[in-house]
Structure formats: C-alpha cells, structure tokens
Design goal:
The complex is a heterodimer of chains A (about 400) and B (about 325).
Chain A: H1 2-28, H2 33-36, H3 40-60, H4 73-101, H5 105-112, H6 116-133, H7 135-138, H8 177-213, H9 215-229, H10 233-251, H11 255-283, H12 286-294, H13 298-309, H14 311-335, H15 346-353, H16 364-395
Chain B: H1 2-31, H2 37-42, H3 48-58, H4 64-76, H5 84-93, H6 101-136, H7 141-155, H8 158-172, H9 188-221, H10 225-232, H11 237-275, H12 280-290, H13 293-321, H14 323-326
The chains are: A mainly alpha (about 400), B mainly alpha (about 325).
Chain lengths: ~400, ~325
C-alpha cells in the first residue's frame, strides 16, 4: 500500500512540476510563443519525461550488490537492458552509415531516407540469416551432443557451478545451451521460413487463379476460406496437431512436417484473401484485356501479367505473415506440440528453462536464460515488423 | 428501423450458418483419426471385447452422418460428452462418478471470462486514451516512442512478455503472485489479485493494436474540412479531437476493440499455460497433449463460437454506427 501511496505522491509532484515549469518558462522568456501556447498536457509530458530520465540515470548507477555481497538483480537487469539498447542503436546507426557510403547508387538512396528502426531491422535480419546458415560452423558443439555435467550454470566460472567449456551452461540432460541457442536460429527460423514460403505458394497461386477465373471456382474457394478463417488459427492448429500426433507414428513422417503443412494451410487462407483482392484490381486493367485478346494462356496471365504488378503488397504481406507463422510455431513449441526434440528450438527452450526465472535474485545470468531464448524470438519479429512498417509507410506516401 | 433489424437478423443467421459449417469441419477433422475412439480410450490395454463394448456405448458402429447429428444435438443441449481421461480411469480402475466435459468446462469457462473481462477493463480505456494522446501529439517524441514500444509488444510472443512481467513484478519485486491458483470460494479481491498478472500480459498484447488503430482512425479524420473549420474557430486541439474527431472515429475503434477481444481468445491459451491459470485454454492444451478428443472438440467449438460471436458483434456495431453501410448500393 505504501508503494501505491508513493506513486500517487510522485505523480502529484510531477503534475505540480509541470504547471510550475510552464509558469517559470513564461516568466523567464517573457512569454515567448513556445511557452505561451504550451498546453498543460505538454508541460506535464516534459516534466514526466525528465523525471523518468532522472530516475533511470539514478537507478543505473545504483551498486550491483549490497554490503553483504548479495546481488541487486534489478539493477543488473536494468543495466543489461540499457547497455543492449545503446549497443543496438549504435550498431544500427553505423550500419546505416555504412549503407550510405558503400554500395550502388540505388542502395545508397534507400539508406539515406531510412529511419534508424528500419536500419536496425535489416541488420538484425542479416544477422539471423547468417546465424541460421552457418550455425554448424559457429556453434561450439553439436545440438544433440550430451556432456557429463548436467545443469551447469552459465558464466563459465567453475567456482559458482559453471564450466569454462560451456559459456551458457548445460541443460537438464547435459547439452550445451549456447550451441542449442545458435542451432535454434537454424531450426526455428528455417522451419518458419519454409512454412511461410509454402503458405505463399498455396495462397498466392490459388488467390490469383480465383481472381482470374472467377465464377464457381472463385466462389467455392472464397467460401471455404471464410469458414477456415472463422476458427482462430492457434486453436485450429492445436486441434489438427492433436490428430497429427496420432498419424505421425503410424505413417513414419516426423511430426514437424505435419506442423509445417498444417500451419502453411491455415496461413495460406490469409494470403489467399490478399492475393485475390490484389488480383481482382489488376484483372480489370486494360493490359490484361489486351493479353487475353492476344490469346495468352492462364499461366502467362498469372505469372507474367499479374504477379509482377502485385509484388509490392505481397512482399510486405510476406514479412507480416512470416512473423505470424514464426510466432505460431514458437507458441506451439512452447506448448509442447511444435518442433520436436532432439531438434533445438527456442520455444521449447523457453518452456524447459522457464523455472530458472525464480532464481533471478541469486543468479541473474541463470534467470536470463529463458529470456534469451524468448528474446531471440521477439528480436527477429520486432526487426521484421520495423522493416515492414517502413516499407508500408514509404509505399503509402507521407500521410499526416 | 426495419432495415436495421433485417440486417442484424441476416448477420445472426450468417453467423449461425458459419458455426454450423465450422462444427462440420471440426467433426470431420477429428474423424480423420486412424483407428477409432475405442482404441484411443483404452490405449495400451485394448482387448477386443473392451473395444467392442466401448464402440457400442459410444455408438461408433453407426454411420458418420448419424453420429454427426447425434453429436451436434448433444452439443446444442449442453451434453458435451465424457472425457477419455475420465472414461479410461473408469474402465481400467472401475467405480467413481463420471464427470462430463460440460461440468469440467463450466467453472474454467467462467474463469477465462473473468480473465478476459479484467483484461478488457484495463486494456480498452488504456488503449483508447493512449491512441488519442498519440494522435494529439503526432510526430512528436512521445508519438514515436509509443509507436516503437507498441510495435515491439505486438511482435513479441506472449510468453516473452509474460516472463518479463513475472521477472519484474513477481520475482524481483514480489508485488503480485506469479501463479494464478484460483479455486472456488475465493473472495473477489483475492481472485483479482491472482488474475492481475495474466491480465496485464494480455493487456500488453492487445493494447498495441487497439492503440495504433485508434490513432490511425483519428488521424485519418483530421484532414477533413470540418476539422479544419473547428480548428479555425480556435478550439483547443484536445477539444477538436475529443468532441469533433472521436465520435466519427468511433466506428472503426469499436470494430477494432471487438476484433481484439476476439484475438484475446487465442492469446489466452498461451498466457493461461504460463501462469497455470485454471481456464479453458489450459484445459485445451492439456487435452491436446493427452489426445482427449471430446474435450478438444468441445473447447474448439466454444473458442470458435466466441470468435464468431465477437466478429459478428464488430460487424453489427460498425453497421449500426455508420449509416452508409446500412444502405449498400
């Protein structure tokens, strides 16, 4: 309750501070327009931001451990967060600078108008792609390799239960966590990418076909898609996975393949909707009419006439769809019915390591393990979303 | 007035038809299972006699169409069947009263509704308020910061946000419990306390989308001539937005709120598992893992029904609030 009271008092002080700030500003600058026309909300916002900033700086420089040597985990986590943020911001800035000076005239132009968030997104996507492709070379051990020492703590310090050979420690059956984290990029991202490609192939081709052919074919597909979209996708995926769990051992096909197909089919409904809508707008154009009169076949119409004109919206959709698929797969794995062991995968890692979070007060690095796996998922989706956001903003022109 | 009524009735009818087709999809999907329920119930210890007796009890010897209508009839009358776990327990160990799926689901459904209600109560005012502020101070540092934060929270998986909240609000600063063990007979305050952390997680997930849509809807209107007029009259920006822009932006905002509440249904599954919240989502995931088909089927149908209902509400509300949609050309 006292914490709540403190909060109220602090907010009250900030509210008074905002009013005072504006008043002093008006008096000191002799009613300059900036202060004269400032609404109270803006003044409050300035003071609130200043208060948060001061608190953040104060908190950052708190000691990491008290006199008894007990770690002050909150400060440690806060420092990591701030350092991470600054590090990534500098990295993104440098990357943008590099893009502005190196490359073709076209790529330089792209980088010149790019916000920092989009540069960060592109950089992160490149890093993930690099990790995923070269996981076998970068990871110190194999993903299924089992070592003597189980549950080695991260940090590599033998005195505190770590092992210098395993920088992030080992899991409950003795697999190196750093290697599994790196292999996770290959498995989780790779499977999500393959699923999205499949979903696009299915949804895109059927959508364009429906837009070109119209008639009963279009009606049939559209109504079918309507029904499939009436079931929430994660729920439907879980239902189908229940059935796949029975089928998988009987047919000898791994459950992961079933998962890829199931999610691709569910997500292709969304792609179908977009492809059909975009295709509809293109099909009524004069050049399609001309191509039809020339006697071009269906495949020529779809691949040579419609597809090139639909790439921009489809590309943005690809990014968003990838995020959805990636998150669905991670959620399924987290719930225990997604990517199956022994493949290393981030969703499963979060579930297996989750209980370590309760040790945050004693060993912050151990508690950070599940967050690292979950953060790896979040970082990639955030990065893709930043890039898509920028692309959409650019293609829609500058709106107010 | 009559036209509005017919439109609503039309939509309701369409919703019912969709639900009917969805039930067919769910039933067919489950019937794609190899072997049949009898073997699934008995698992390893399936003797031919036991299989035959269960097949007779469940009516599996009838044709799929007859079974479908029986199942649908039972669903409509509230008889959701008996879970395999329960049946298995009874046939292998004998005795004990069978608890039907309906009785299993009912208290959990109430819990989930409570969680969704608390989330909506926090998220909706928060998101709309934030959206109005972002529209008011568009392109300022505040707007950019909220934009980046909301974009990040939309794209993070639910369990990431959940564990971050657990780390800061339950482990490092023990203000809220990280496990939501809710049982019958708890006082409202206790329940609320246990529900708060999952509700906050869901709020983070849902707010972002609602806030961005609110902002976009208001900003879209700000270019209209009547807003220009209001501005030229010398009204304060806040008043322009709240009195002039907001009422006209209400339709898309209400729509997006309903759609996001529908999205909550999916989010609820993961969040309930993280916090061990005794809701319908957790029951669903547990049943998926042990392949308890009747429970999975029933939960799936309930989720789909809620989803369709919320989408329907969004549809009807947007028609009601926009006269132009009432008279389609």
């Amino acid at each position: 309750m006292s914490g709540f009271l403190t909060l109220v008092v602090v907010l009250g002080l900030i509210a008074a501070g905002g009013w005072l700030f504006r008043l002093i500003g008006q008096k000191a600058t002799n009613n300059k327009p900036f202060f004269r026309d400032m609404s109270y909300a803006v003044a409050f916002g300035y003071v609130l931001a200043a208060a948060v900033l001061v608190f953040a700086i104060w908190y950052y420089f708190q000691p990491v451990a008290n006199e008894q040597g007990v770690a002050n985990a909150g400060v440690i986590f806060f420092r990591w967060a701030v350092q991470g943020l600054i590090f990534f911001a500098i990295l993104a800035w440098l990357f943008r600078l590099l893009g502005r000076t190196v490359g073709t005239a076209w790529s330089k132009k792209q980088f010149r108008s790019m916000p920092l968030t989009a540069a960060f997104g592109i950089l992160m996507i490149l890093v993930y792609a690099f990790l995923a492709i070269f996981a076998g070379v970068l990871a110190p051990y194999g993903q299924e390799e089992i070592f003597q020492q189980v549950n080695a703590l991260p940090g590599g310090n033998a005195a505190t239960g770590g092992n210098p050979d395993h920088l992030l420690g080992t899991d409950q059956i003795g697999r190196d966590l750093l290697s599994r984290l790196i292999y996770g990029a290959q498995n989780t991202v790779g499977i999500a990418f393959a699923t999205t490609l499949l979903a696009f192939f299915l949804g895109g081709s059927l959508g364009f076909l429906a837009a070109t052919m119209r008639g009963w074919f279009d009606q049939f597909l559209s109504r079918g898609v309507d029904v499939l979209m009436a079931i929430p996708s994660l729920i439907f995926a879980l239902l189908l996975m229940t059935i796949a769990q029975v089928w998988a051992p009987r047919t000898g096909i791994p459950l992961t393949v079933f998962m890829v197909v199931i999610i691709a089919v569910i997500d292709s409904t969304r792609v179908f909707r977009l492809a059909r809508a975009v295709g509809m707008n293109i099909v009524v154009m004069d050049y399609i009419e001309a191509a039809k009169l020339r006697g071009e076949g269906l495949s020529y119409l779809i691949f040579k006439e419609i597809l090139p004109n639909a790439t921009a919206p489809l590309l943005a959709e690809f990014g968003l769809r990838f995020c959805f698929v990636f998150l669905t797969i991670a959620s399924l794995s987290f719930l225990g019915v997604g990517i199956q062991p022994p493949l290393a995968d981030w969703g499963t890692m979060v579930r297996d390591l989750a209980q370590f979070i309760n040790f945050a007060a004693f060993s912050p690095l151990t508690a950070a393990l599940p967050l690292m796996a979950a953060g790896a998922i979040a970082l990639l989706t955030v990065a893709v979303n930043f890039v898509v956001d920028w692309m959409l903003h650019r293609s829609s022109g500058l709106k107010e | 007035m009559t036209s509005v009524l017919t439109i609503i009735l039309q939509r309701l009818g369409l919703g019912l038809v969709t639900l009917f087709v969805v039930s067919i999809v769910i039933f067919t999907a489950v019937n794609l299972l190899p072997g049949d329920f009898a073997e699934a119930i008995l698992g390893q210890g399936a003797t031919p006699e036991a299989v035959a007796s269960i097949r007779r009890d469940l009516g599996l010897d009838q044709s799929p169409i007859v079974r479908y209508f029986q199942w649908l009839g039972n669903m409509v009358t509230g008889d959701l069947g008996t879970s395999f776990a329960q049946l298995n327990f009874q046939t292998n160990l004998g005795g004990g009263d069978l608890v039907g799926v309906a009785e299993q689901i009912a208290p959990r459904f109430a819990n989930t509704m409570f969680l969704a209600g608390v989330t909506a109560a926090i998220a909706v005012p928060f998101a709309v308020g934030l959206g109005i502020l972002a529209a008011l101070f568009r392109n300022s540092a505040f707007d950019r910061a909220t934009n980046i934060t909301t974009l990040s929270s939309i794209s993070s998986p639910e369990f990431f946000l959940a564990y971050i909240l657990i780390l800061f609000l339950a482990v490092l600063n023990p203000v809220l419990p990280s496990l939501s063990n809710i049982f019958q007979g708890m006082s409202f305050g206790e329940r609320l306390e246990k529900t708060l952390l999952p509700a906050l997680t869901l709020t983070l997930v849902v707010t972002a989308h609602m806030m961005r849509m609110t902002r976009a809807a208001i900003i879209n209107l700000l270019a209209s001539p009547y807003i220009e007029m209001a501005r030229l009259k010398g009204i304060s920006p806040m008043r322009v937005i709240v009195r002039h822009a907001l009422p006209n932006a209400l339709a898309p905002i209400i729509n997006v709120i309903a759609l996001n509440l529908a999205y909550l249904i999916t989010g609820v599954v993961v969040v309930e598992v993280v916090f061990v919240y005794p809701g319908i989502g957790q029951l669903f995931v547990d049943s998926v893992k042990i392949r308890d088909i009747p429970v999975v089927q029933a939960c799936c149908l309930i989720f789909a029904a809620a989803y369709i209902l919320l989408n329907l509400t969004a549809d009807i509300l947007s028609i009601l609030s926009n006269p132009r949609l009432r008279h389609p050309k």
